[in-house]
């Protein structure tokens, strides 16, 4: 069975407390990170251990790290990259020594996910993250910043913090002229360097797809469709080189058939982590996030969960972004309520699918026998 988790930004940065997360039905643990440590710096083992104990004291498990961010110099292959890769390996060692065996990361140049609206009003009175390519595609980074300043209503989009304006402009310039194959070569260089450590400490690496799943701001993107995922699988044969299967990110492009991607034999055994959420397409390069329920979005969540069950995915899963509902003022996409509803909905789907197939579905997630086995 899958193991349900919840993304948590840590005691300093997340207004949602662990005791609340603990009360979500079927919740086994959290996915977290030392967000205070900048990309490229080493994660101290004692800090990881401290976080792990903090989570365990609340009756939850620390089920994985999201993310240890990859320094931009590694992505564009600067001659300083070896030093940053060495630091990345030290961070992996710290995580591994603390008994944590899952790391989510991405290899997207400069940005994490991009949206044009952090609080798009939906018909039911909730708000959700929205994207309209007509607004941002074709803009330079500077123009995008100007748009955000005018329209963000005080919110900051991760990666688009206003104090990063000059830094981001400079970062984008460094990628000028780089092709997808150039970026892939740098990705392979990184994977080849870290895999021996992942094997030694039993750390499954799950690269997160690009979001949205198409090119933006003239930057190459290499994790946006089935073909891209197969290329990544072939870069390094270690089974620890794998994916975070994010249905909402891949699903931002309607051309991506997610159950088919899950069933691809070169991909399925490398799915180490699943982010499962829904999106509603409203036009070409235009979508908003929706509740997790199939009929509220454009993705068939039953077919997605069925594909995951059928390929034998027994790893860590989490609901991904949620809407803001019931008046909650949350970190955009990361409120408590809608993600909690998503977590229980996904468990309902999995229970029904497994029982229908006569597969085992444990009645107690907290029993040692059924607990997560790595
Ligand atoms: Mn995701």
TrEMBL record:
Protein keywords: Iron, Lyase, Manganese
GO molecular function: ferrous iron binding; manganese ion binding; mannonate dehydratase activity
Chain segments annotated as coiled-coil in the UniProt record: none
Xref: InterPro entries: Man_deHydtase (IPR004628), Xyl_isomerase-like_sf (IPR036237)
Gene3D superfamilies: Divalent-metal-dependent TIM barrel enzymes
Catalytic activities: D-mannonate = 2-dehydro-3-deoxy-D-gluconate + H2O
The enzyme's E.C. designation: 4.2.1.8
Cofactor(s) required, per the database record: Fe(2+); Mn(2+)
Pfam family, any one: UxuA
SUPFAM superfamilies: Xylose isomerase-like
Pathway assigned in UniProt: Carbohydrate metabolism; pentose and glucuronate interconversion
GO BP of this protein: D-glucuronate catabolic process
Family per similarity comment: Belongs to the mannonate dehydratase family.
Function: Catalyzes the dehydration of D-mannonate.
Entry-linked NCBIfam families: PRK03906.1
The protein's name in its UniProt record: Mannonate dehydratase
Native source organism of the sequence: Succinivibrio dextrinosolvens DSM 3072
């Amino acid at each position: 069975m899958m193991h349900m988790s919840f993304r948590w930004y840590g005691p300093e940065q997340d207004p949602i407390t662990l005791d609340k997360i603990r009360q979500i039905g079927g919740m086994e643990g959290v996915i977290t990170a030392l967000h205070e440590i900048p990309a490229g710096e080493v994660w101290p083992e004692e800090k990881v251990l401290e976080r792990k104990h903090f989570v365990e004291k609340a009756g939850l498990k620390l089920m994985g790290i999201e993310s240890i961010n990859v320094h931009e110099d590694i992505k564009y292959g600067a001659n300083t990259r070896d030093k940053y890769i060495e630091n990345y390996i030290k961070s992996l060692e710290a995580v591994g020594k603390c008994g944590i065996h899952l790391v989510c990361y991405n290899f997207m140049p400069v940005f994490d996910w991009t949206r044009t609206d952090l609080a798009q009003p939906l018909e039911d009175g909730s708000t959700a993250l929205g994207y309209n390519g007509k607004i941002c595609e074709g803009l330079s980074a500077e123009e995008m910043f100007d748009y955000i300043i005018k329209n963000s209503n005080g919110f900051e989009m991760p990666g688009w913090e206003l104090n990063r304006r000059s830094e981001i402009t400079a970062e984008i310039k460094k990628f000028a002229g780089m092709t997808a194959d150039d970026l892939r070569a740098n990705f392979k260089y990184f994977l080849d360097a870290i895999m021996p450590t992942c094997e030694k400490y039993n750390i499954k690496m799950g690269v997160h797809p690009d979001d949205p799943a198409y090119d933006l701001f003239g930057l190459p993107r290499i994790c946006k469709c089935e073909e891209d995922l197969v290329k990544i699988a072939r870069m390094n044969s270690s089974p620890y080189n794998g994916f975070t299967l994010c249905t909402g990110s891949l699903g931002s492009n309607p051309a991506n058939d997610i159950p088919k991607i899950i069933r691809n034999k070169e991909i399925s055994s490398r799915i180490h982590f699943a982010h499962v959420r829904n999106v509603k397409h409203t036009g070409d390069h235009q979508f908003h996030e929706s509740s997790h329920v199939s009929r509220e979005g454009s993705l068939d969540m039953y077919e997605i969960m069925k594909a995951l069950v059928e390929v034998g995915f027994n790893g860590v899963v989490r609901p991904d972004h949620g809407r803001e509902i019931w008046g909650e003022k949350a970190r955009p996409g990361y409120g408590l309520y809608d993600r909690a509803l998503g977590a229980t909905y996904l468990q309902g789907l999995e229970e029904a699918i497994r029982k229908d197939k006569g597969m085992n579905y444990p009645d107690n997630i907290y029993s040692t026998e059924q607990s997560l086995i790595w």
